[in-house]
Amino acid sequence: MTLDLKAYENGNRPTWCPGCGDYAVLKVIQRALLELGIAPEDVVLVSGIGCSGKISHYFGGYGVHTTHGRVLPVAQGIAAARPDIAVIAAGGDGDGYGIGVGHLVHAVRRNLPLTYVVMDNGVYGNTKGQTSPTSPTGYRSSTSPHGNADEPVHPLRLAWSAGATFIGQGFSGDIRHLVELLKQAVSHPGFALVNVFSPCVVFNKTHDYAFYRRSVFYQETPARSSAELIQLLETHPFPLGVLWRTDRPAAARLETGPADAVPSDCMRRWLRGTLG
Amino acid sequence: MLEQLSWKVGGQQGEGVESTGETFAVALNRQGYYVYSFRHFSSRIKGGHSNDKVRVSLKQYRAITDHTDVLLAFDQESIDLNVGEVREGGIVIADEKFNPKAPDHVRLFVVPLTKIAEECGSAIMKNMVSLGASACVLGLPINIFAEVVEERFRRKGQKIVDQNMLAIQRGFEYVKELGGALPEFALKPADGTRRLFMMGNDAIALGAVAAGARVMPAYPITPASDVMESLIRKFPKVGGVVVQTEDEIAAINMAIGAAYGGARAMTATSGPGLSLMMEAIGLAGMTETPVVIVDTQRGGPSTGLPTKQEQSDLLAALFGTHGEIPKIVLNPATTEECFYMMGDAFNLAEKYQCPVIVMTDLQLSLSKQTTEPLDLSKVQIDRGYLASEADLLPAPQTEEFKRYKVTESGISPRVFPGTKGGIHKVTGVEHLESGRPNETSRNRKIQMEKRMRKLRGVEIPNSVVRTGDADADVVIIGIGSNVGAIAEAAERLRSEGLKVGHAHVHAILPFPKHQLEAAIGSAKKVLVVENNATGQLRHLMSFFGVQHESVDSLLKYDGGPFLPSEIYQHVKGMF
Question: Per the record's keyword annotation, is Oxidoreductase included, yes or no (chain A) (predicted)?
Answer without folding.
Answer: yes
